[in-house]
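Technical appendix A lists one of the benchmark inputs used to test multi-chain prediction within the project. The record comprises three sequence entries:
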Amino acid sequence: MKNTKKNIIKTLEAMSSIENLTMLAELKEKHTPFQMLIATILSARAKDEVTLPVSKELFKKYGTPKTLANADSRIVKNIIKKIGFYNTKTKAIIATANKIQDDFHGHVPETLDQLMSLPGVGRKVANCVLVYAFGKNAIPVDTHVHRISNRLGWAKTKTPDQTERRLEAIIPRKYWPLVNETLVKYGKTICAPISPFCSKCTVAVSCPRIGVIKSR
DNA sequence: AAAACGGGGGC
DNA sequence: GCCCCAGTTTT
């Protein structure tokens, strides 16, 4: 099957049959943009089942830029310890809270460049905040999106950055926010990194199986 | 381009 | 006990 825009949209719709929301889509319901930002920073290379409860626990004490900016790093470190990379992440989220206070009047910025200027925020986290916290058009590319895009032949790329450019070129803007949500859900369940459940994949017919890229 | 950061969950 | 996990920063 050729990678026309119509076919890609059809494939995305076919993959969206999975009913569970991603962690970020779930968090969106009851959390502020600042809390979405912090939870997204914390989620890097960590599992949702750990990140979710830890984030909620953190927000009980430090749920605003003001409170987190002035937090005791030892207490924060202890709360988020289970996530891993906790030294780095503690420093990052406190510094980010301070920068939001000092440079952005206490509000999470809404542009990609400004978000990426925050400590601990790279392109993926910034794009996630744009999509999940502010409802803007962007395509956050994590390992799931990168892996599946390459398996399906939508992209033949080495880096997530290249994948993002490619997807933005071949997918109409109005579908951009769906790409991350759909592919992450699909990647967690069917199109797994190591042993994908191809027998249960509803879009296998569209999958050229151009090699199986490494999990990381 | 490669290394460092990391505890917890799954098997 | 070993491997993996919604990346980012530093070397």
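The domain at 5-18+139-206 of chain A is CATH 1.10.1670.10 (Endonuclease Iii, domain 2). Confidence is low (pLDDT under 50) at residues 210-216 of chain A. Comparable benchmark entries are summarised in Table A2.
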